[in-house]
Protein 1
Amino acid sequence: MERKNAWLVRGAAEKAAVTALCEDYKTYLSASKTERESLANAVALAREAGYISLKEAQEKGSLACGGKVYETLMGKILALFRIGRKPMTEGMNILGAHIDSPRLDLKQNPLYEDKDMVLLDTHYYGGIKKYQWVTIPLALHGVAVKKDGTVVNIVIGEDPADPVVGITDLLVHLSAKQMDKKASVVIEGEDLNILIGSEKVYEEEGEEENRKSSVVKNIKDILLEKYGIEEEDFLSAEIEAVPAGPARDFGLDRSMILGYGHDDRICAYTSLRAMLETEDTEKTAVCLLVDKEEIGSVGATGMHSRFFENVTAEIMALTGEYSELALRRALANARMLSSDVSAAFDPNYPSVNEPKNTAYFGRGLVFNKYTGSRGKGGSNDASAEYVAVVRRIMDDAGVCWQTSELGRVDEGGGGTIAYIAGNYGMEVVDAGIAVLSMHSPCEIASKIDIYEAVKGYKAFLENA
Ligand code: MN
Ligand code: MN
């Protein structure tokens, strides 16, 4: 039952194609450090491929077979549709993935000065090992929205000429007590404070001995001069501290990619890529990139939102198929690959996996019939019939693929967006790409697995 290694299957003939795809992915990942950036870059690629916005499609008045449309909400959730030959009531083939990643969000009142240093207070987002986020260069990405609605885009720390920021750790010489603590509290959430300044300036004109001075004044001046934002604008901002720097080739053989946010932009990008490269399908093809997966898929831009249902209704209105019943049928008859990263086997930590049911680097696209924890809790658990359909599609298309569970029974676990799509009655199975060091600032993925994923997703859109 051991699965084939895709490097051996592809051989030299396809090496150039693997490299080219992964160069494109690295470019996307390096420029997509937040859900907003991931979405904006995805929309740009979609428009290049001829997709138009829902509003533009509505102005044209109708949609026919081959029509390519996208819709977004709040800049954080995206659905793309390519209309197939069959009516949508016969079902859609959906590729889903999420574009939010674990990070440190600035608090609403983040700025403070302490002993001639200025820091930003954060509230972490998603599941992180907090000790991994200290002593690494961080960049600040996001938006600050002024009271008049002006959106100020912020990216500090990515251009090699930019400064970076970061969180300090205690020197080892004075860490006797810290080193005895449990890893979960060795760095505490409230202590994830980002150092951003230390130059002291006078706050006012006048006689030297009476003049007030501070470090925070200088930082406030820089924020105002460079970005036009005042301290109060942090109240209506979404600024994320993320690992600084681009994604890079990893390994002496360049067979892997190291980067921040593979979870789940690696599945988002490969799903999008397959969507944009797939033409002329029987069923309507859909690519759905969602936000908030890392905190429970909640809110208007998470998978629990009515967004996808609403957009499907709008699309069906344009194809002339819409009725409440037709919408229900289109959703219930859909088939979906809910793609999220899998835990790759790690030779440093073999004990957490059960080797027969573990994802391995190089063995291609991963399918998880179920995820969950403590007895499959929270899992979608795809039907055997549907898994058989997916097996056939992958094998017919010559895709390298494997199956996996998230660790040994009762070792831990986790969930995805799959069960939420399943609520419509559609067939859903978890799929995705294996990564090492998941949720760390430096996740690692295999290039050949990225290649197999695009192949698999295209085969699904064409044949499911
Ligand atoms: Mn994920
Ligand atoms: Mn995750």
Protein 2
Amino acid sequence: MLTFYKIVSTQFQPEDKRKVTTHRLTEMKSRGEKISMLTAYDYSMAKLIDSAGIDVILVGDSAANVMAGHVTTLPITLDQMIYHGSSVMRAVSRALVVVDMPFGSYQGNPEVALASAIRIMKETNADCIKLEGGTCVKESVAKIISAGIPVMGHLGLTPQSINQFGSYNVRAKEETEAHRLIEDAKLLQSLGCFSLVLEKIPATLAAQVASELTIPVIGIGAGGAVDGQVLVMHDMLGINDGFNPRFLRRYANVGEQITQAVSQYVSDVKGSDFPSEKEQY
Ligand code: KIV
């Protein structure tokens, strides 16, 4: 890792300031450099994350949860994803930006899928799209890729299917589902997907998929033997403190800092301590 990054105190900064492309992710896999990926949904956070050296920014449909307060990812619309995607794109200069296709914008009808993907690409200026599922969406995946749009797949726990799954538990623990997942992963690669997200599956299964595929496999709750890791930014920064799965590592307690800062501000205003003489004209 140290050959790709220089150490600045305890933080890593990429020496390679070039824009990250789908091809560069494949190169990273072949030389064993791990891929870092985080979600972002707005201009200001995307700017901070990009300047910290993240490789991939995912404009996830998890915006439905962390930005809009929905219980599932299902309600978010294509227009809303485009709004988030274009906000992020205005901030980013280095990271590869992936926009999630929302529920209902690609399942069932490849023509609709292509029209949705084209809207995302044209109206956000993003680099590529991500969608959930394997065999069941193969015609849509093929159609989108045939138009020259890079597609990232997503298997394992696919939150858009929560009503079918019935829970957010670990997926593919049983042999039949694990076998289907491996087949779906190979199918997505053969259709031309440039990368694959595996969510909440056993680490051994994820390791097997990553070693059998040539495209980069990025995990969330899928162990360390994959080609990269993705987390939801609000979870890892401690903004969303009600979500504590085993796979989540908290890197900050931003939620607590915000609450403390705001309560200090309220008390300063109430006590006529703010603004001071220096803070006025
Ligand atoms: O929407 C999202 O944030 C995602 C990640 C969990 C991979 O799809």
